[in-house]
Amino acid sequence: MDKGEPIGTIVRLQIQKYPIKAKGVGYMPQGILSVSQASVDAWGMVGRHDDTWVIDAHHKAHPASRGGGRRPLSIGFTGHYALMAERFGSAPDGIAGENILIDGPPLCLDNLGEGLVIETAEGERVALERPRIAAPCVEFTSFMLGLDAVALLAEVEAPLMDLHEGRRGFIVAADHTPKGIGIAVGDTVFYGSVE
């Protein structure tokens, strides 16, 4: 895989222990677990917590797998968090539930091209392929607005649109990573593509 210019470093890794959103119930960020190291493969991500590997809710092997493995990983950028905080008053790092948070500018889908490459401290590389926008939802938007219940779409349409274009994050795949590769906070992320 080819790597291009650096974007930034990983500042947060996290997994969702269980699905954190449910229609009619709302957004439940208590299911987000911050981890200092993780392993990524074509099936998704697992994170190391208290000497145990914890499977992300989007991983194909998770018993309550969301999306049947079609949404194996997600990424976000600190630049987007600054924009969310400006719009909603507060946006703690990781609250959107992405797996990998990168210290980098706010980027749009066109900026990501074919994808990104993580380079570990050991020199291994993980290609994050086929980026697409993680569409915002009424549950997350209602949560960010501080509402006690999930609003109707018509009631939150404007703030929901403010979370589009990648501000909520991007979904990526790691199809060319057949075996788990360990990644950690501090690893560098580059623009890149699979050779």
In short:
The chain has a single domain (8-176), classed as Beta Barrel (M1 Pyruvate Kinase, Domain 3), CATH 2.40.33.
Low-confidence sequence ranges: none
CATH structural architecture: Beta Barrel
Helix and strand sequence: EEEEEEEEHEHEEHHEEE
Structural class determined from secondary elements: alpha+beta
Provide the β-strand percentage band. 35-45%
Number of domains: 1
DSSP, total strands: 14
As a whole number of angstroms, the C-alpha radius of gyration is: 16 Å
Tally of alpha and pi helices = 4
What coarse outline follows from CA principal-axis ratios?
Answer: globular
- Mean pLDDT equals 91
User: Looking across the biggest beta sheet, what order are the strands in?
Assistant: 1-9-8-12-11-10-14
